């Protein structure tokens, strides 16, 4: 691919582990970084607007309405969207919250035996929680899924190198945490 690939990375309802897993590419990073123009990423640039990109990797699912809004905006502005990591593909650990009602999730941290809270749950300026945590693939079309918690460095590398070469990455159909 002649031009640099414009790449976006975002952390929604995830733990940053997928972003950190990029560093596990070690010296392979030096091979691919020159071909990438990372235009949106929490670890690189504090950019407010979602830019138009070639490839966007979304870590985590949608926990609140803002996450869902961002997913749609990313889909509109990206040629390729990758659901990146088990949380983005299947719900992962944040998806365990779906075992509880939203009201329980809202109130439990504010009313426990170890918290002394005046009973005011903040509301203003905080995005409303969705009824359930939704993986990326439940909200928008993902062109590729890259599962793993976090994805194996080999999978990250396979995806990046293939996309740099204008090819389809060969990714496993099913994988959660291990190969
Ligand atoms: Fe963190 Fe694992 Fe989810 Fe990635 S898939 S955001 S490493 S919990």
Automatic annotation (TrEMBL):
Residues 15-163 form the NADH:ubiquinone oxidoreductase-like 20kDa subunit domain. Keywords: Oxidoreductase, Ubiquinone. GO terms for molecular function: iron-sulfur cluster binding; oxidoreductase activity. It comes from the Archaea. This is NADH ubiquinone oxidoreductase 20 kDa subunit. It comes from Methanococcus vannielii (strain ATCC 35089 / DSM 1224 / JCM 13029 / OCM 148 / SB).
């Amino acid at each position: 691919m002649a031009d640099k690939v414009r790449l976006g990375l975002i952390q929604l309802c995830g733990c940053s582990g997928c972003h950190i897993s990029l560093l596990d590419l070690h010296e392979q990073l030096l091979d691919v970084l020159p071909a990438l123009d990372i235009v949106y990423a929490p670890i690189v640039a504090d950019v407010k607007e979602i830019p138009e990109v070639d490839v966007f990797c979304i870590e985590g699912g949608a926990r609140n309405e803002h996450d869902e809004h961002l997913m749609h905006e990313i889909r509109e502005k990206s040629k390729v969207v990758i659901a990146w990591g088990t949380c983005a593909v299947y719900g992962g650990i944040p998806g365990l919250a779906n075992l509880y009602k939203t009201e329980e999730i809202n109130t439990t941290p504010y009313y426990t035996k170890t918290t002394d809270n005046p009973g005011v749950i903040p509301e203003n300026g905080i995005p409303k929680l969705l009824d359930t945590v939704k993986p990326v693939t439940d909200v928008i079309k993902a062109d590729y899924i890259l599962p793993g918690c976090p994805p194996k460095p080999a999978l990250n590398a396979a995806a990046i190198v293939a996309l740099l070469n204008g090819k389809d990455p060969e990714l496993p159909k099913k994988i959660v945490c291990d190969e």
